[in-house]
Prior knowledge:
It is a single chain. By secondary structure, this protein is mainly alpha-helical. The protein has five helices and three strands, in the order H-E-H-H-E-E-H-H. It has helices spanning 3-21, 33-44, 54-77, 93-115, 124-146; strands at 24-25, 79-83, 86-90. Strand 2 (79-83) and strand 3 (86-90) form a beta hairpin. Helix 3 (54-77) packs antiparallel against helix 4 and helix 3 (54-77) runs parallel beside helix 5. The protein is elongated. Residues 162-166 have low confidence and may be disordered.
Amino acid sequence: MTVYEIVILVAMVGYAIFRQTQFHEVVGDTRFKLAIIYGIVGLAMGGYHVPNGRWEIIFLATSLLLSVVVGLVRGKYTRVWADQGRVYSQGTAFTISLFVGLVAVKFTMGTLAYFNGLSDSGRFGEILLMIATMVAFQAQIIWRRAQPLGARTSEKAQPTRSHTTTP
């Protein structure tokens, strides 16, 4: 990883953490926006390399599995509530810790694989693609939790006033 890539990674992780500390409305048609952004940046930064060895396949499969599991858990434990006809979500200390942990594990796996000669294909963009995968699964779980509370399906839809709860 170059210094430039590390700076971008730290900035994007920092932005993701900041966004998780802020509450925002859950809207169906925009739920994958952050995942798409991370995926595009990850691909643009050369984030995917087709594995060509057994260990590379194992590392890729493990990374994907970790991203999916962490996304599902984060989706379950993110705060979701309705207020005045709109549904909101906000990360918790636990969900933010899971996010930071996933990034740290992915970085550690890539470093260990590189220094042990198991793989030299781990790239900066790959971490962003793993984050995108996690965020997509998390967004879908949050959306499923938000629907019974009256979440809007699109930004054009009017909020409902029938579901009001507090966090």
